[in-house]
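Q: Given only this backbone (600 positions), what sequence would you predict?
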């Protein structure tokens, strides 16, 4: 017999009754019924109920076992009586009559309960992550993550993609976030950067003629944490293709994403390919965001013209100073009590806005604080433009275009949530396309790249030479699911002269580009194919499919909000001798409260 187990703890069934077996696992729960002591034994695969009689020689030692101790037991599989069958357990028809028991490892008193779904503080969960990972829900999430990655990998290979690994120690690249830097001992004063993405390397693979590449790529960005963004590191399905258009990239990505979501979404509806394509400008207007949640049926309208020249001087004066008016429909909301509208106004004020003006349409009468300022002709145009019906209401936001889009987008979500009209049990995908190549940096008042600096401008070199930079669009796209951005991608700028001009517009000289991107630019001068790709985020895919609100719940060993690993005590202090070898002198700023848990 194997020294530890003949079966695992989720395996035994009625067909095993009468067999002598050996199991190993963790004591999940212990119950003393006087003459009988029950142990629920757990391993990776499941739980089996085991029972020991008070007359057993091992009874006394078992009584002292703590939960989460590791044991090996020998016994016989017996049939449970009908009244004791547990239909909630896969092994609920049987139990093990314990004949011998060996303690492999005694557990100390637990800082968190593994056999409970009770919530525990983040600091406790991350400090004792190895215990947290034993808990049923989190354990299942990490198993789900593995299965999803395996499915993605299989689907990519089936489409003819080849998996390659790209370097982790590389050079800095302007991906839009801070780099993690690694000092070089052999090259004093110089630093490697951990890759924010394998961007340049995957393009070089296309130049090298490999045609279709992918990897489940680790990426490193020194960013602040959010619910849908981990500090430090994350993983993405990184892929690149040669001789493709934007639509070719979509045609490669959609079957993979649709297939994976259908496989793991249980009973939820998944958008069928081809996914909707929404131009960036349209998305910002209709949804107030470039991450539209299409489960929400509400669409924002620009109603600036309706208020232009009206007697509502608050909006009119703002319009004269460059503001726009956005309207958010609220179907059948006219029947809501006054408190519904007051709460939405208070919500908007809580965001720093003056409030949300509104009009209701009921009993063929327009009511609300703004209605009296619009004549019948303007009200009729408003109803027609927004397809409003009897019993509907409409809310208004007035501000400069970027701020109006942001507040209107938030109001669209808030109104839909309060009216409970967001589609349930669905994953709604779309592509947001035609992103601006450039944007104006509000802090410096200079032109920056909007997204990926390696994107091909629509119109090529001619557009870069003749158009207002802020009017140039890129062959650049995001894929969005339920309001969460899964990926950015682009058709790449593979022509040296176009790349140099694109960077020149944001202030890079030719020598700057030659120095910072010498490998990529050098390669392009030896025959580069047109190419493009995408990189859906693995962590966010798993978060959606696991129906979790936070990425921490689908990552085995996440950092906390301050980018600290509480389990391994990272980041940590480095011995002076090590710093000396790296030619580094550290000047530590005053301690911050957030560093206290690591003793920094």
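A: Predicted residues:
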């Amino acid at each position: 017999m194997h020294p530890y187990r003949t079966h695992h703890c989720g395996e035994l069934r009625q067909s095993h009754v009468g067999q002598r077996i050996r199991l190993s696992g963790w004591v999940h729960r212990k119950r003393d019924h006087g003459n009988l002591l029950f142990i629920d034994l757990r391993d990776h695969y499941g739980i089996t109920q085991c029972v020991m009689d008070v007359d057993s020689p091992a009874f006394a030692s078992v009584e002292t076992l703590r939960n989460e101790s590791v044991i090996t037991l020998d016994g016989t599989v017996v049939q449970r009586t009908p009244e004791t069958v547990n239909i909630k357990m896969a092994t609920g028809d049987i139990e093990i009559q314990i004949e011998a028991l060996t303690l492999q490892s005694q557990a100390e008193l637990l800082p968190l309960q593994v056999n409970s779904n009770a919530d525990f503080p983040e600091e406790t969960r991350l400090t004792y992550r190895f215990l947290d990972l034993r808990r049923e829900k989190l354990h299942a999430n990490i198993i789900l993550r593995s299965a999803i990655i395996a499915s993605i990998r299989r689907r990519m290979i089936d489409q003819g993609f080849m998996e390659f690994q790209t370097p982790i120690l590389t050079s800095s690249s302007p991906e839009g976030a801070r780099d993690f830097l690694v000092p070089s001992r052999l090259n004093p004063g110089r630093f490697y950067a951990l890759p924010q993405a394998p961007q340049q390397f995957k393009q070089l693979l296309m130049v090298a003629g490999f045609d279709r590449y992918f990897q489940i790529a680790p990426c490193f960005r020194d960013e602040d944490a959010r619910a849908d963004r981990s500090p430090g590191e994350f993983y993405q399905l990184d892929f690149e293709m040669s001789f493709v258009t934007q639509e070719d990239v979509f045609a490669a990505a959609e079957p993979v994403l649709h297939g994976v979501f259908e496989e793991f979404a249980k009973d939820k509806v998944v958008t069928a390919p081809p996914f909707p394509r929404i131009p960036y400008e349209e998305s910002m207007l209709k949804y107030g965001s470039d991450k539209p949640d299409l489960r929400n049926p509400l669409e924002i309208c620009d109603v600036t013209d309706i208020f232009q020249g009206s007697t509502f001087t608050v909006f009119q004066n703002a319009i004269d100073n460059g503001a726009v008016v956005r309207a958010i429909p609220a179907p059948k909301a006219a029947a809501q009590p006054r408190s519904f509208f007051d709460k939405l106004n208070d919500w908007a004020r809580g965001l720093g806005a003056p409030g949300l003006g509104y009009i209701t349409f009921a009993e063929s009468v327009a009511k609300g604080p703004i209605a009296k300022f619009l004549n019948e002709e303007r009200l009729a145009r408003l109803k027609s433009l927004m397809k409003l019906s009897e019993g509907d209401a409409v809310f208004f936001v007035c501000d400069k275009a970027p701020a109006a889009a942001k507040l209107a987008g938030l109001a669209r979500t808030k109104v839909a949530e309060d009216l409970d009209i967001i589609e349930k049990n669905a994953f709604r995908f779309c592509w947001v396309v035609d992103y601006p190549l450039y944007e104006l940096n509000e802090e410096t008042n200079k032109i920056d790249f909007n997204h990926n600096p390696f994107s091909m401008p629509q119109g090529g070199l001619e557009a870069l030479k003749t158009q207002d930079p802020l009017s140039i669009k890129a062959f650049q796209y995001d894929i969005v699911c339920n309001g969460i951005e899964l990926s950015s991608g682009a058709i790449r700028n593979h022509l040296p002269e176009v790349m140099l001009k694109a960077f020149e517009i944001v202030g890079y000289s030719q020598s700057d580009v030659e120095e910072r991107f010498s490998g990529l630019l050098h390669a392009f001068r030896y025959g580069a194919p047109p190419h493009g790709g995408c990189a859906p985020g693995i962590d966010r895919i798993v978060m959606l499919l696991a129906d979790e609100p936070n990425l921490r719940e689908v990552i085995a060993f996440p950092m906390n909000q301050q980018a600290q690993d509480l389990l391994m005590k990272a980041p940590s202090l480095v011995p002076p001798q090590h710093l000396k070898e790296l030619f580094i002198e550290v000047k530590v700023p005053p301690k911050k409260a957030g560093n206290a848990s690591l003793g920094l």
